[in-house]
């Protein structure tokens, strides 16, 4: 081979080596984000491109989700783990304990800068709040889902996943508590809720407001939560293998207390009453709740209304009845806080403090 050809080949090889090392250097500068996949519509598939309801959730694995968004490599050094593969209506306390322990183990590692959790949207707000109360780190944890399966026209999963990874890799998201990112919006775990059964703008934080936006490959925060969360939490699930059973009963005109009595008989340690109005108690239900309290069941008055403060001693004399008022937590969020509170105390005054703290 002539000297000039071998010289050119040597130059080409050197250029490739320099390019690879620059890529490696750039990759090394990117934040390290682990994607924990749990299932849901973001991992769903439908019979056709126009199937946006009636599809199958939890069919696509985490590696496929990542491969479908090659742009992820530009914003973070991403690794994927398939923690579960379920539709999120089937999420249980056991799933939450497994997930919280995995998140805390990963975030304790120096080579993990943030975590994204892909999740079904039906209970996404609940898992987010459970993690908001149990993650022991200020590093970003972002939950993301999709309202349409990946097989659908204008599927929202890929852009939601890209934005969630970008957020989890950002400095701005550090110390903000567990975040929920869908539809270019950033929400706090404590207040975000699913407000529509099927549209891509389903996740909202009514009245108290979302935290910010993700736009042009950048997160923009305009507010922060005022309540304790993540690294400031007093709850520790690291040594727990189970959680106390807490159930919710719904209030409505002509309500029948049979369901409440059955839940108490089945061993519920706590009851969340999703009352009408400001957590009002219909007479038959009030009688049943008082009897439950006498058996040592913790009672929290929440409301089916969804917004506003459930005032202590407002629609019921909580001091006299020894009940707890849920402040602004909706019934499904109040259930999570009471569940964790019961891992530390059965003192109702202490639990009321927790509802004013988190
Ligand atoms: N089965 C629902 C769930 O897994 C699908 C809804 C969704 O993920 O958007 O939460």
UniProtKB/TrEMBL annotation:
This is Type II asparaginase. Keywords: Hydrolase, Signal. PANTHER family: 60 KDA LYSOPHOSPHOLIPASE, L-ASPARAGINASE. Residues 32-224 form the L-asparaginase N-terminal domain. Its EC number is 3.5.1.1. Residues 245-355 form the Asparaginase/glutaminase C-terminal domain. PROSITE patterns: ASN_GLN_ASE_1 (PS00144), ASN_GLN_ASE_2 (PS00917), ASN_GLN_ASE_3 (PS51732). GO terms for biological process: asparagine metabolic process. SMART domains: Asparaginase. The keyword Methyltransferase does not apply. Belongs to the asparaginase 1 family.
């Amino acid at each position: 081979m002539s000297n000039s050809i071998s010289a050119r080949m040597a130059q080409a090889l050197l250029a490739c080596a320099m390019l690879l090392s620059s890529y490696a250097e750039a990759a090394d500068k990117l934040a390290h984000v682990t994607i924990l996949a749990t299932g849901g519509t973001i991992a769903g598939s439908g019979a056709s491109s126009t199937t946006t309801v009636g599809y199958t959730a939890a069919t696509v694995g985490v590696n496929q989700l990542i491969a479908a968004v090659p742009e992820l490599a530009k914003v973070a050094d991403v690794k994927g783990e398939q923690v579960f593969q379920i539709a999120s209506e089937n999420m249980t306390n056991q799933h939450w304990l497994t997930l919280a322990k995995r998140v805390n183990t990963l975030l304790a590692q120096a080579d993990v800068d943030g975590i994204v959790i892909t999740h079904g949207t039906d209970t996404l707000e609940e898992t987010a709040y459970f993690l908001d109360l149990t993650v022991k780190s200020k590093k970003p944890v972002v939950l993301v889902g999709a309202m349409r399966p990946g097989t659908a026209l204008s599927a929202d999963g890929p852009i939601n996943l890209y934005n969630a990874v970008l957020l989890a890799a950002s400095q701005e998201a550090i110390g903000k508590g567990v975040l929920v990112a869908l539809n270019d919006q950033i929400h706090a775990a404590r207040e975000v809720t699913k407000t529509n059964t099927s549209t891509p703008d389903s996740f909202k934080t009514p009245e108290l407001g979302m935290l910010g936006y993700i736009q042009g490959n950048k997160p923009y925060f305009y507010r922060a939560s005022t309540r304790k969360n993540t690294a400031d939490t007093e709850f520790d699930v690291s040594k727990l293998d189970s959680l106390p059973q807490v159930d919710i009963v719904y209030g409505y005109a002509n309500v029948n207390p049979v369901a409440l009595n059955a839940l108490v008989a089945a061993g519920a340690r706590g009851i969340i009453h999703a009352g009408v109005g400001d957590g009002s108690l219909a007479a038959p239900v009030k009688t049943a709740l008082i009897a439950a309290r006498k058996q040592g069941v913790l009672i929290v008055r929440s409301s089916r209304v969804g917004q506003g403060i459930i005032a202590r001693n407002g629609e019921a004399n909580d001091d006299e009845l020894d009940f707890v008022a849920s402040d602004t937590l909706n019934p499904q969020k109040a259930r999570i806080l009471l569940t964790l509170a019961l891992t530390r105390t059965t003192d109702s005054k202490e639990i009321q403090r927790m509802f004013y703290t988190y």
